UniProtKB/TrEMBL annotation:
High-level lineage: Bacteria, Pseudomonadati, Planctomycetota, Planctomycetia, Pirellulales
Annotated PROSITE patterns: PEPT_TRNA_HYDROL_1
Biological source species: Aureliella helgolandensis
Record's protein name: Peptidyl-tRNA hydrolase
Cited InterPro entries: Pept_tRNA_hydro, Pept_tRNA_hydro_CS, Pept_tRNA_hydro_sf
List of residues binding tRNA: 21, 71, 73
Length: 193
């Protein structure tokens, strides 16, 4: 009995490039990929298709990790170019990891499809995909306090109270990506949602 061929999948963490955006609420997608890179001793990322990428082996899966460097609102360009190059099916072999204002801080939610929910990076990926059937793992960052500008809030850093909660959520999200590689999206939804 021969072993089955390894599968290939791609996970995209959304965020903005540059030190000034490091560890901001909008960059939790980048943080999840950073955590996976560390845990699986990924090779140093290379730059191509307006993003950085590397790959790791998780169970039977060769997993391509992609950090778009286009800034959040244009993430779709990097995702489309990289997915086309690696022949990734956006509905079955891609998982987008991003922040979500409508979920409490640290809460995770996995969905197979749906709107971008106001997350501009996810919206751009859905636009480029031509449909809403793109799996996503959303990490709650909560709503801004009254009278706060949404842009200022998402580009701000977590408070000292929120930091341990987000650190746990980033680890849980990395574990969910691992489960997606070893099992499937339905298994992940049962574990996370």
């Amino acid at each position: 009995m021969s072993a089955s061929a390894p599968t290939q999948k791609m996970v995209v963490g959304l965020g903005n490039p540059g030190a000034k955006y490091d560890r901001t609420r909008h960059n939790v997608g980048f943080e999840v990929l950073n955590r996976l890179s560390q845990q699986y001793f990924a090779p140093a990322p290379r730059t191509k298709f307006e993003g950085q990428y590397t790959s790791i082996t998780v169970g039977p899966t060769n997993l391509i990790l992609v950090w778009p460097l286009t800034y959040m609102n244009n993430s779709g360009r990097c995702v489309r170019a990289t997915a086309d190059f690696y022949k990734i099916d956006l509905e079955h072999e891609l998982l987008v990891v991003c922040d979500d204002l409508s979920l409490p801080t640290g809460k995770l939610r996995i969905r197979l499809k749906g709107s971008g929910g106001g997350q501009k990076g996810l919206n751009d990926i859905l636009r480029v995909a031509g449909n809403q059937n793109v799996p996503r793992l959303r990490i709650g960052i909560d709503r801004p306090p009254p009278r706060w500008d949404v842009s200022d809030y998402v580009l701000g850093r977590f408070s000292s109270d929120e930091t341990p909660v987000i650190s746990q959520a980033v680890q849980a999200a990395a574990d969910a990506v691992r489960d997606w590689c070893i099992h499937d999206i339905a298994y992940c939804m049962n574990q996370v949602n």
